[in-house]
Design goal:
- It catalyses: Thiol-dependent hydrolysis of ester, thioester, amide, peptide and isopeptide bonds formed by the C-terminal Gly of ubiquitin (a 76-residue protein attached to proteins as an intracellular targeting signal).
- Its EC number is 3.4.19.12.
- Recognizes and hydrolyzes the peptide bond at the C-terminal Gly of ubiquitin. Involved in the processing of poly-ubiquitin precursors as well as that of ubiquitinated proteins.
- One of its GO terms (molecular function) is cysteine-type deubiquitinase activity.
- By secondary structure, the protein is an alpha+beta fold.
- It is built from 16 helices and 19 strands.
- Among the domains are: about 70 residues, Phosphatidylinositol 3-kinase Catalytic Subunit, Chain A, domain 1 (Ubiquitin-like (UB roll), Roll), CATH 3.10.20; about 120 residues, Alpha-Beta Complex (Cathepsin B, Chain A), CATH 3.90.70.10.
- Strand 1 and strand 2 form a beta hairpin.
- Helix 1 crosses helix 6, helix 3 crosses helix 7 and helix 5 packs antiparallel against helix 6.
- About 40% of the residues are buried.
Length: about 525
């Protein structure tokens, strides 16, 4: 029997019907116990028929159905004696420890638990979405006891641990919850070693779970508000002139890579084009319909997936396209929007450009000195360019293309979408196939704009120039997932583009979002 249900007695606590997979090494079971009790595997003493259970083999006394297993170990922090030596100053620490102190404010690293860099990099990048963290703090702990709920709760706890900063730690509980909800991430290769997985599949599946459980106060999925792009596909038959439209919601923009693709924006345009065969009512037969998808409402965050992997039949692997595809620190979605949404974005974009021009002029005057500043006090007192920060209130209002205010005092302003986005996270891959190699996260810190590379447990400060070098063209790390955050503009209250027309009419599309996200989860990164 590969799987049995056992009872675990830990002190005064008893856990009933704990599923135990005999095909997995005992360390996996100990990780389950860690998720239940908080006792780390290295501090567990598991008694099985009077014998101490090892990490790598079950031994002769195999567990049986309904057996009671004794667990000993404390979930509390191990007491540490007061230091007997004189205090050690930072300057006296080894360079490696000094580096850890320097990066502690950026969060914590995550230990690799055996080909789990795909998971570590995905979650470090997802952690960069501050509104998602806030929503998980409010709703994540009460997500329920089913596999989806446990994964959501584990995500919430993982984010809390990352926020605390400090030394790297092993994300046992999250890994077990991920594999329980999505068994494909428990796939094993030769020798029983867990296989490398696709980071994009991890991202999409975790988002799918969060979408199901984490709702805003109005009942709308937080994932929809933060990442959902409302779309309209328009296809036309060249033979008959027939045309039809199809509304939907997407959570990722695909960057298709062709021989002529020279930039991310070109790849997005290719990914939005579509050619489909369907029955023509006028022709009475199947005909080719061609067209493209336009965005009808923009979210606060946009995820771009570089379609670098394709399935090779000869070796049954997801091979990698190494072509260099440059990307920018800013992504402009304007050209991919519908005509009506473009009209809604025009005024905020003009306000954003005007604010940028004023800020540039103010910097020039500041360099010239006080005399020049006094000569043009208006320019010198100009406000800085609009912030790119997005909170949940902005997210709730951003679906129609801009946040709105029906009324307000004279001179008051409100935030509006511009269609422009700034890069805040990158998941990169180094290697020749999706199921091998190494994944790393690069995250822009909201506090000071510093870029930090999260390579499992190691944190390294990087520059913008180094981030832009992740465009591919060789065997170095290259961008696979790009996370962009909306740049908002200050516009007069009541004068921003409203939520009427196309954006409001598409509101019901959120009901169809589960199917759209499930399709993306199944598609993964295998198609180019």
């Amino acid at each position: 029997m590969a799987q049995v249900k056992v009872n675990v007695k830990w002190g005064k606590e008893t856990y009933s019907d704990v599923e135990l997979d005999m095909s997995q090494p005992p360390l996996v079971f100990k990780s389950q116990l860690f998720a239940l009790t908080g006792v780390p595997p290295d501090r567990q003493k598991v008694m099985l028929k009077g014998a101490l259970l090892k990490d790598d083999e079950w031994g002769k006394a195999a567990p049986k159905e309904n057996m009671t297993i004794m667990l000993m170990g404390s979930a509390e922090a191990v007491s540490v004696e007061a230091p007997k030596n004189a205090p050690t100053f930072v300057e006296d620490l080894p360079e490696s420890e000094q580096e850890h102190l320097d990066t502690k404010r950026f969060g914590s690293g995550l230990h690799n638990l055996g080909n789990t860099c795909y998971m570590n990099s995905t979650m470090q990048c997802m952690f960069a979405v501050q509104p998602l963290r806030e929503a998980l703090h409010k709703k994540g702990t009460a997500a329920g006891g089913d596999p989806t709920g446990r994964l959501v709760s584990a995500t919430s706890e993982l984010f809390k641990d990352l926020e605390n900063g400090g030394a790297p730690f092993p994300p046992y509980a999250f890994l077990m919850a991920l594999r329980a909800k999505f068994p494909q991430f428990a796939q094993q290769g030769a020798g029983g070693v867990y296989s490398q997985q696709d980071a994009e599949e991890c991202w999409t599946n975790v988002m799918y779970a969060l979408r199901e459980k984490v709702k805003d106060d109005d009942g709308t999925a937080v994932v929809d508000k933060l990442f959902g792009m409302r779309t309209r596909l328009t296809l036309k038959c060249e033979e008959s002139g027939e045309e039809f439209t199809e509304d939907g919601m997407s959570y990722t923009l695909k960057v298709n890579i062709e021989d002529k693709t020279a930039h991310v924006s070109e790849g997005v345009a290719v990914g939005l084009r579509e050619e489909r065969e369907r029955t023509s009512a006028q022709l009475g037969r199947t005909a080719v319909f061609k067209g493209a998808t336009a965005l009808t409402a923009l979210p606060p965050y946009i995820t771009l997936q570089m379609m670098r992997f394709f399935f090779r039949r000869d070796n049954q692997q997801k091979a990698k396209i190494l072509k260099k595809i440059p990307f920018s620190l800013e992504f402009d979605a304007y050209d991919f929007c519908s005509a009506q949404l473009k009209q809604q974005l025009d005024a905020p974009r003009a306000a954003y450009k005007e604010a940028q021009d004023r800020a540039i002029e103010a910097k020039k005057l500041a360099k010239k000195g006080p005399a020049a500043g006094a000569a043009d006090s208006t320019a010198a007192a100009a406000p800085a360019a609009p912030s790119a920060d997005v909170d949940m209130k902005d997210a709730a209002e951003a679906g129609a293309g801009a946040s709105t205010s029906s009324s307000g005092p004279t001179g008051s302003t409100t935030k509006a979408m511009t269609g422009k986005y700034e890069l805040v996270g990158v998941v990169t891959h180094k290697g020749r196939t999706a199921d091998s190699g190494h994944y790393v996260a690069w995250v822009k810190q909201p506090s000071d704009g510093t870029w930090v590379c999260f390579d499992d447990e190691k944190l390294t400060v990087r520059t913008e120039e180094e981030v832009l070098q992740l465009s591919g063209g060789g065997d170095w790390h290259m961008a696979y997932l790009l996370l962009y955050r909306a740049i908002m503009a200050d516009v007069p209250a009541g004068g921003a583009a409203g939520g009427s027309g196309e954006g409001a009419a598409a509101a019901k599309q959120g009901e169809d979002a589960p199917a759209a996200m499930e399709a993306e989860a199944q598609a993964g990164g295998a198609s180019a």
